[in-house]
Amino acid sequence: MTTPSFSRDEMMTIAAARALGNDDVCFVGIGAPSAACNVARLTHAPNITLIYESGTIGTAPSVLPLSIGDGELCETAVTTVSVPEMFRYWLQGGRVTIGFLGAAQLDRFGNINTTVIGDYDTPTVRLPGGGGAPEIASSCGRIFITMKQSRRGMVETIDFVTSFGHGTGQGDRRALGLDTRGPTLLITDLAIWKSDPETGEFVVSSLHPGATRQAVVETCGWTARFADAVEDTPAPSELELTTLRDLKARTAKAHGASGGSDS
Amino acid sequence: MTTPSFSRDEMMTIAAARALGNDDVCFVGIGAPSAACNVARLTHAPNITLIYESGTIGTAPSVLPLSIGDGELCETAVTTVSVPEMFRYWLQGGRVTIGFLGAAQLDRFGNINTTVIGDYDTPTVRLPGGGGAPEIASSCGRIFITMKQSRRGMVETIDFVTSFGHGTGQGDRRALGLDTRGPTLLITDLAIWKSDPETGEFVVSSLHPGATRQAVVETCGWTARFADAVEDTPAPSELELTTLRDLKARTAKAHGASGGSDS
Amino acid sequence: MARFMTLAEAMKETLSDGDSVAFEGFTHLIPHAAAHEAIRQGKTDLTLIRMTPDVIYDQMIGMGMARRLVFSYAGNPGVGLLRRLRDAVENGWPRKLEIEEHSHAAMANAYEAGASGLPMAVFRGYKGAGLAKVNPNIKSVTCPFTGEVLAAVPALRPDLGVIHAQKANRQGDVLIEGIVGVQKEVVLAAKRSVVTVEEVVEDFADVHPNACVLPRWTISAIAVVPGGAHPSYAQGYYGRDNPSYLEWDGIAADRDRFRAWMETNVLQAKPEDFADRVAMLEKRP
Amino acid sequence: MARFMTLAEAMKETLSDGDSVAFEGFTHLIPHAAAHEAIRQGKTDLTLIRMTPDVIYDQMIGMGMARRLVFSYAGNPGVGLLRRLRDAVENGWPRKLEIEEHSHAAMANAYEAGASGLPMAVFRGYKGAGLAKVNPNIKSVTCPFTGEVLAAVPALRPDLGVIHAQKANRQGDVLIEGIVGVQKEVVLAAKRSVVTVEEVVEDFADVHPNACVLPRWTISAIAVVPGGAHPSYAQGYYGRDNPSYLEWDGIAADRDRFRAWMETNVLQAKPEDFADRVAMLEKRP
After folding, report:
1. B3 pLDDT above the threshold of 50
2. Is residue B260 part of a domain?
3. What is the 3-state secondary structure (H, E, C) of chain D?
4. Does the interface predicted TM-score (ipTM) exceed 0.85?
5. Residue B247 domain-assigned?
6. In order of start, what are the domains of chain C with their CATH numbers?
7. pLDDT score recorded for residue A255
8. CA atoms of C9 and C198, how far apart (whole Å)
9. Which regions in chain C score pLDDT beneath 70?
10. CA-CA distance, A250 to A259, in Å (whole number)?
11. What is the per-residue pLDDT for A259?
12. From CA B63, how far away is CA B79, in angstroms rounded?
């Protein structure tokens, strides 16, 4: 077994960064990979607009925030607005092209649970809840989801629909009056999954270096589908990796050894 | 005939100023007597809060503005907010104790017309319209009206209800779900009129120096009612008159000879 | 994404005959230069939207450019009535003008709803007011929690929003300070937007974090037009030219005098002329 | 009208058992000192309202002060779950906690509606979301113009709103800068309000005209508590004390350790202690 020059976590973050473009307006909610967004900004997408739900618009932090409301976000932002304005004018106003969400539980249709494990009224585990996710999922042009693969996280049926993806398949969004595209991309530590335009299901479209089909299947609670032609995710470039590691190093230095959490 | 040491206009403005208190939050709409509000602020009510609908809160102009959005209002304000916020948080929020309104036509129940003379669709005279008046009339704690008396302005029936006073009498406001008091005071160049708590009609409660019952009756298009005990409005004090005249002089100097309009 | 261009290019690219357009400004920062450019380009059949149509809409209406007016207070601020508007409403000159009339609260809420991507604005208003009887776009919704009946009006979503602002930075972000009115809302509510600015600066490094800034990607076109708000004012740049507002009352009182004034001061003029018009005005802090 | 008083007096005068209260702050300016004072005063049966209940609500819930929680995201920012809150919801310790759960958009809109004097907030939300099925306070209204069905939630009108801000002037006006969250809205929406501030200054003469300022007559009580947001931060005064947030995860994990920590650091402490806690923190620009 060779020691890779990068970790799975790093690959996941860099694959997510690559999916972002210069013209994107990206809503970085709680739990979302602000590392990915900032790597994109520091590499191929210098003009990307990053919005954190605390009200900071067009922010460009030199270190990763520990929370979605760190002072650095405000200090480097184009403008900082109130939270009601953020949700009314900016998110609901339809100005955000990409919303990033994480998940405690995810199903194959991109429906997400971050509310409870077990029954809502008598939960086994009370999770933090949805925060901005229900409206991020409906108002952003597209939704990107990032999470590490596990059978506990990627499940056949989620316990609670915190935010709506494609419901039980394509067409469900339109039936609810949603004209945004919903989850189109799932980036894990093993693969890139894309939403099938016909069924709304996530389908593996690219495997990260070193990841196998078997590893994907074994760490996924639903029956994983693969595209006809599964591609190989290019390994992180020198620039990508250096940018990410420098960002993490600056963050650790600024916040102490504990720094660098994405939430 | 003696020459009074003050004009009827000055008496009207000063009588209106006296009706305002230190704790009042006063919404000074278009056409309203900002002279009265500022005389109050410069004499007995230094802590009165003046709000202009342009968004300026707690303003303290040294000269009278020519418009409700003069720069001086912003420069001297505690804060300046957007116009949507002004109408949502501040006016609709129920924070304004007194709204000042003027009128092209007024009836005895404090209903006001500033929209059209004649029919709405084929008007004889197209007036500017209501601006903030419809919601000022409903959202402020009390409404004070100032106008010069004339049979053309104080009429039996107004052509259009721009803003609602007491409708056809007391009880009509409550029937509409309004829990504010509506017009309680009418200050003219001849008299102070108060709203009868029983009928909602304006009743003359005080005659200005030199004004007679006959003059009031002759310049009012409805049958004027007088209180059982009609008082004499005290003549302007030296301080009141000096304050008003200094304000007007500063205003004329700042804006040129044309300055000093209240609208 | 904001592109810097001349005012002539900006209005040509963004405004078409038949469009709905809001030239907004609340006494402060009224986009006179942009309105004059639209007049020079002879745009027609417009639906003009504005809380406080004043001199510029009196001019556009008098030139016969407007098919319809959506508004809440039509006056010459500090002076009185708008005489070209009156002539259009009372006499149909130079053409008939449809009007949709609201209160300030309704218009402000309707812009806010437009900026918020909502189809309607909900507020407590129009209680007992005559406008609710003559304007079919004033409806109501009932609160499902309290049963209270609230007013509802359609959101305003103009094809084009036009404002004047103090400055842009090189990236195209726009800063508005002082009486900010509904300017942010109209840009966010509109499908396209044009902003004229007094100047372009390198960056906004020292600006207050909560100042009113429109990010570059919310704006279609920026044109640098010093003095472009004249005879309105631009806080920090120049004061209000009150005599011009008073003078307008006389100009607008007579159809021929109006036409002659427009020919000289608008049709034969250029955006660059605005800088001269404010040169002698007191600089406001 | 704002009156200056001690924090102990302010909380005693404004908060009663059984009240609904919102201690608001969005990562920035969280009113820790005020929450600790409420804990010392042993208030009980409270309905706690907040978009992002974090450490202070974990503490109040762990002390058994809360009957009900209205919220949209319950986490320790940058760290993880709230262990006292979980213990209350999952095990009813130290008492059962009713919850009313919303999304951020709903809560932000509900505060905005409260500040606006409306009975409800209307927004486009909860489409397909599970909360709409379990929270009876999520209803809908239909747009009378387009037929679109929009979400409606009751306005938030707490008995008391509590915030921390950078400064007050001598007259009692309050200035909030940076990430302003829903702080203005909660003060305007609440029946009574308490503001703790870092300092009192003579006046705000040099402040930006559109900065977030709460006029004195919108506030009930102001208490000067330097460091009163610790371990949250106050832009311009001190940075966030991240280790304290991490430490909380361990403290809250164990009921006994929690009780002991509260005894030492809250029950036996004073508002004045907060100044010491931020003395060593980096000053943020």
Report:
1. no
2. no
3. CCEECCHHHHHHHHCCCCCEEEECCECECCCHHHHHHHHHCCCCCEEEEECCCCHHHHHHHHCCCEEEEEECCCCECCCECCHHHHHHHHHCCCCCCEEEECCHHHHHHHHHHHHCCCCEEEECCCCCCCHHHHCCCCEEEECCCCCCEEEEEECCCCCEEEEEEEEEECCCCEEECCCCCCHHHHHHHCCEEEEEEEEEECCCCCCCCCCEEECHHHCCEEEECCCCCCCCEECCCECCCHHHHHHHHHHHCCHHHHHHHHHHHHHCCCCCHHHHHHHCCCCCC
4. yes
5. yes
6. 3-102+158-272 (3.40.1080.10)
7. 78
8. 17
9. 282-285
10. 9
11. 37
12. 19
Residue A66 belongs to what domain range? Answer: 8-253
Pairwise pLDDT comparison (B261 vs C103), residue with the higher score: C103
By the CB < 8 Å criterion, does B82 face chain C?
yes
DSSP H helices in A140-200: 172-175
Number of structural domains (chain A) is 1
Cβ of A93 within 8 Å of Cβ of C1? The answer is no
Whether B151 maps to a domain, the answer reads yes
Q: Rounded to an integer, what distance in angstroms lies between the CA atom of residue C227 and that of residue C281?
A: 10
Residue D149 in tokens: 């069905």
Give the active site residues of B. 53
How far apart, in Å, do the first and last CA atoms of chain B sit?
33
Q: Give the DSSP letter string of A206-218.
A: EE-TT--HHHHHH
Domain presence at residue B258: no
> What does the alpha-carbon distance between residue A75 and residue A71 come to, in Å, rounded to a whole number?
6
SS (H, E, C) D209-273: CCCEEECHHHCCEEEECCCCCCCCEECCCECCCHHHHHHHHHHHCCHHHHHHHHHHHHHCCCCCH
Instruction: Kindly list the residues from chain C whose CB atom is less than 8 angstroms away from the CB atom of residue A23.
Output: 1, 217
pLDDT, tens digit (0-9, with 9 covering 90-100), for A127-185 = 999 999 999 999 999 999 999 999 999 999 999 999 999 999 989 999 999 999 999 99
Q: Which two tokens stand for residue C134?
A: 């003559």
Q: Residue A30 has what pLDDT?
A: 54
On whether any CB of chain D is under 8 Å from the CB of A169, the answer is: no
Residue A71 sits at φ, ψ, to 5 deg, of -60, -35
Dihedral sign, CA of A69, A74, A79, A82? positive
For an interface test with B, which of D116, D180, D188, D191 has the most B Cβ atoms less than 10 Å from its Cβ? D116
Q: Give me the CATH number covering residue A147.
A: 3.40.1080.10
Q: Cα–Cα distance between B36 and B18 in angstroms, integer?
A: 8
CB proximity B157 to D under 8 Å: no
Chain centroid, CA D211 distance in Å: 21
Query: What chain D residue is nearest to B57 in terms of C-alpha separation?
Result: D215
Residue C112 per-residue DSSP state: H
Per-residue confidence (pLDDT) for residue A170, from 0 to 100: 81
Distance from CA of D253 to the nearest CA of C (A): 38
